[in-house]
Specification:
Strand content: 15-25%
Helix content: 40-55%
Function: Catalyzes the dehydration of chorismate into 3-[(1-carboxyvinyl)oxy]benzoate, a step in the biosynthesis of menaquinone (MK, vitamin K2).
Number of domains: 2
Strand order of the largest sheet: 2-1-3-10-4
Keywords: Lyase, Menaquinone biosynthesis
Order of helices and strands: EHHEHEHEEEHEHEHEHEHHHHHEE
EC number: 4.2.1.151
CATH topology of the largest domain: D-Maltodextrin-Binding Protein, domain 2
CATH architecture of the largest domain: 3-Layer(aba) Sandwich
CATH class of the largest domain: Alpha Beta
Number of helices: 13
Pfam family, one: VitK2_biosynth
Catalytic activity: chorismate = 3-[(1-carboxyvinyl)-oxy]benzoate + H2O
Radius of gyration: 19 Å
Number of strands: 12
CATH superfamily of the largest domain: Periplasmic binding protein-like II
Shape: globular
């Protein structure tokens, strides 16, 4: 891979959850001669780093893209989403929703997309407006003073294995049943300024991410083995998990994300309209809407 010589080290943000592994694992084998730094963090921290200009390109919460869409471009074909159950965006409730509407919900500090997805579903689908309180992602602690708790990523998965007596709702399934669409919970975005300054390097990063994703989707065994070793659970669970996630940012995910942004604007969760603007590395213009 030929890369323009530049003294700038490209900074890349990687979501530090198993659901994003297919986008990043083996990246280093797909890129040659690029001076880069990979920074793994939870989504909320990557959101902050990209918006502050401390990263050039990163996987981030989709909601964060909506907040800063004028400053970012989306990388086509890269997302973490689902059409239906997602298995790792879960609302744990003490009582079933049809029996008791929650008055207080503890929400994890590690995401923005899922918190606002929950607010949209509760307000517009179920006509419920509970109090939302931020909390560290520990299910037992979250439920001490709340009727329900929202967890994402690996903490949600491990909590679901020990959730006896609780009623668990999958937000991906709720969204799909309501809208008929998929949802992109995380996207890969680059700063427009980085695209302009480091076009060759960003193209190399994008191509390497696409190649890593293709390889990992073709052979999920290393991901499954790693998940069993580091997080736990059975291989059959992880096989279902990785196969059920959507990484290609297809039409149903784009439509679902656009609807999500529209609802977020209607509820004043976003202060402006958010459009999906994609990077097109083969075009001299490089971005299109």
């Amino acid at each position: 891979m030929s890369i323009m010589s530049n003294l700038h080290r490209i900074t890349i943000g990687e979501i530090d959850y198993a659901n994003a592994w297919p986008l990043f694992k083996g990246f280093e084998r797909q890129v040659d001669g690029l001076d880069y730094e990979m920074i793994a963090r939870v989504p909320s921290e990557l959101n902050r780093l990209l918006s502050a200009g401390e990263l050039d390109i990163s996987a981030i919460s989709s909601f964060s893209y909506g907040q800063y869409c004028d400053d970012y471009v989306l990388m086509p074909g890269l997302s973490v989403g689902s059409i239906g159950r997602v298995h790792s965006l879960l609302l744990f409730m003490k009582e079933p929703l049809e029996k008791c509407k929650p008055r207080k919900i503890a929400v994890t500090t590690t995401t923005e997309t899922t918190i606002n997805l929950l607010k949209i579903i509760m307000a517009m689908r179920f006509e419920i407006e509970p109090e939302y309180v931020r909390a560290e992602p520990d299910l037992k602690t979250m439920l001490k003073d709340s009727d329900a708790a929202l967890l994402i990523g690996d903490p949600a998965i491990t909590a679901s294995w020990h959730s006896e007596g609780l009623h668990v709702l999958d937000l991906g399934e709720l969204w799909n049943n309501w809208t008929g669409l998929g949802m992109a919970y995380a996207v890969v975005a680059a700063r427009r300024s980085a695209v302009e300054k480091y076009e060759g390097e960003l193209r190399a990063v994008y191509e390497a991410l696409l190649a890593a994703k293709k390889h990992n989707q073709h052979d999920t065994r290393p991901l499954i083995e790693r998940a069993c070793a580091t997080i736990g659970g059975e291989s059959s669970y992880w096989e279902t998990y990785f196969r059920s996630l959507q990484y290609d940012f297809g039409d149903k995910l784009q439509a679902g994300l656009s609807l999500y942004f529209r609802y977020a604007r209607e509820l004043n969760l976003l202060s402006h309209e958010a459009r999906l603007t994609f990077y097109e590395y083969q075009s001299p213009q490089r971005v299109k809407e």
